């Protein structure tokens, strides 16, 4: 029969016959699928369904693609593996930890009102963490198989409480929670995970929400990078990231999900603590955040495991043969769900089981039974959580997200549990304390309740012995940051000699000088293999085609195609062992890669050296919070802001011209920032940076801008030792005026590309009989830090026989005349030195929005060209009585400067 005849024959059937036929077809298909499931397993079922979808699509049938599954657990109760732990002991441990979290925060706020802290987050996440601590998270004893864990920042008191039971922290330690500066016994116990303040404990700062997830993705990716390049043995290590459901609103949380799926990072596990609440109220009061997140993650190619309902619901689900309970689950919204956890059995009976069919389902259920249901959420059921973790561990081919439903403030009493104010609760009322104590089963008397004492069952108690035994089996106590790497024999001055000699009159940019240095570094016999170049889809802009072809772009799949430029010197080469990380148009991801590479020395004992080169405008301005996180976790490496300065990138205009990155670099205390004008300056800075970070082990990282302007690179001035010292400390005299019998003298300070304008200004000034000495300021930040240290020393040592003198004052001591400073950055930068010199400093800079034009026009617009520098010098000489005002006025006219033009920052 033809297709048409089949359709016509079916259409002639009566309605009853058609229904019977459809029921028979459905029954046969399900029975066939059941046979395959029982005989071949779930993978074969998936393969068959996919084959059917392909067949249907080929024949014009569009099968609806569903990103959401029913609002129930992904793993059915009858598929849960046996639980390997002691359920009762683990329940008691979790409850003791919950109590001690209350004690940590409550005691801290009694001693110092408003010191803050968070109770409710850990109350909701305790079981999710304890299953991991007791059965999954591998510590340092596991070697390269150890896991990296990103802890949800607001639950830090729970981690401290666990360390207290394990004997790592004392009561004195816990009593100093959030009191980093308080003297007396006890170690620093920071508000959140901060490796800078607790360098032997925390590994990842996570409480600036959204930064933990993106860093976890790129840590998992970098783990694979190290393995594929042979720097690290292949392992079963996992990266675990514990996140809040409210945290998913952050762009950084979700923005990099596709990277994890594209790179098939099955070594990555996200665990979302879906307690349905953020700081002000429900995350999604009018819908279900778990379902929303399932769509987002599944749509991005992640394996999604939902842990929605606890075991108390299993019996009802089994009884629900008509599907009425599943239908009610689909109608449920999070704002409604929150009320049940807050108000209990009565609310659940009246509002949730609100139809005759649902009421019949709970016939015989007491209020106590329903009370259990209100709090029976998957995130608090260790058997459900264990099943999810085990499935995630065994999954291959893609990252996994576990979305676990919990109750914010679980067990904290009527004032906090599931209430909108739960996140802000720092102190519990006596009634709440009593209820929490009874719910958690803590042996604290009514008389002592107000003190909220810490509770420790004793080092020989079953609870503590169990915890320590489980951790010993998994490789030791965590969190723990243990740094052990062999210092590198970094390149010395001889390695950079060619750059000290200048370019011999040939015009090149500092960007090209850097690319030559990088190319040479990757071939270095000791450090070369550790160099990790990172670019966000701008390698060709920066002239790095040769780097791409020589070291290759890292790709876990290798290169599955022949590039269009095959056979050329600058072939676009991808490789599984590629060294360069090409991150695409993704500065946040590139910065996360920089952090992963720059902390590998601490996580793996592998001192990789990241060189992240990017458009400077899209660096510190765009990913400043990640830069701050890099400083907190003691990252090493080099940030290189290419096309830096407001006037060096002449054609790109307002959006791309950076005149403020050096100002933005000031807040990060362990990030030296330099502004080299010449190749030899850059070489000295790189040599010193490599030595300090990878030979001496200093926990610093560098910001160095690079220019795309070509000009001759001069040789390093003699004596080299003095020049080197000046470069590193922030200033040195580049040239001294040779003008005989000048009318006056000035000191011109230049930085980066504007140093060339300063040099030309010195020549112009000679026409006015003014001798101008030229100074290269390589780092205003270094000079500023040195100056404030000297000022502080003098303030605190008023009787010292020899007051300290700032290096900038030492350098300019004995020089004559006013100081004029010009840079391609905001005037605020050189103004940092005001008050630290024996005379005023007159600053020229590039305040205002950028423009598109020639460099000459831009420098005139921002008043940092040679003409404006010359006029500024003449004006300062007039101010000090060395020249008459008419000389300055005549120069303004001669140099074509419009004195009535509006200031650049207003245009």
Structure notes:
By secondary structure, the protein is of the alpha/beta class. It has 37 helices and 19 strands. The strands form five sheets. A five-stranded parallel β-sheet has the order 1-2-3-5-4, sandwiched between helices. Strands 10-7-11-12-13 form a five-stranded parallel β-sheet, sandwiched between helices. The protein has a five-stranded mixed β-sheet with strand order 15-17-16-18-19. α34 links the parallel β18 and β19 (841-844). α4 (87-111) crosses α21 (462-473), α5 (120-135) packs across α18 (382-394) and α36 runs antiparallel to α37. The radius of gyration is 33 Å and the shape is globular. The protein starts with a helix and ends in a 13-residue tail after the last helix.
Please provide the count of β strands.
19
Q: Residue-averaged pLDDT, rounded?
A: 94
Characterize the biggest β-sheet.
Answer: 5 strands, parallel
Helix tally? 37
Radius of gyration: 33 Å
State the end-to-end CA separation: 80 Å
What level of helicity do the residues show?
40-55%
Strand order of the largest sheet: 1-2-3-5-4
* Beta-strand percent range: 5-15%
- Estimate the global geometry from the Cα principal axes: globular
Present the secondary structure layout:
Blueprint: H1 3-11, H2 15-40, H3 42-58, H4 87-111, H5 120-135, E1 148-150, H6 156-165, H7 171-174, H8 211-228, E2 239-244, H9 251-255, H10 257-262, E3 268-274, H11 289-299, E4 303-307, H12 314-319, H13 324-331, H14 334-343, H15 345-352, H16 356-361, H17 367-375, H18 382-394, E5 400-405, H19 430-440, H20 446-449, H21 462-473, H22 497-500, E6 507-508, H23 510-521, E7 531-535, H24 545-551, E8 553-554, E9 574-575, E10 581-582, H25 587-598, H26 600-603, E11 609-615, H27 624-632, E12 637-642, H28 661-664, H29 679-695, E13 701-705, E14 711-712, H30 720-729, E15 731-735, E16 744-750, H31 754-766, E17 770-777, H32 780-796, H33 807-812, E18 819-822, H34 828-831, E19 841-844, H35 855-861, H36 866-879, H37 885-894
Parallel strand pairs: 1-2, 2-3, 3-5, 4-5, 7-10, 7-11, 8-9, 11-12, 12-13, 16-17, 16-18, 18-19
Antiparallel strand pairs: 6-14, 15-17
Helix pairs in contact: 2-3, 4-5, 4-6, 4-21, 5-18, 8-25, 15-17, 31-36, 36-37
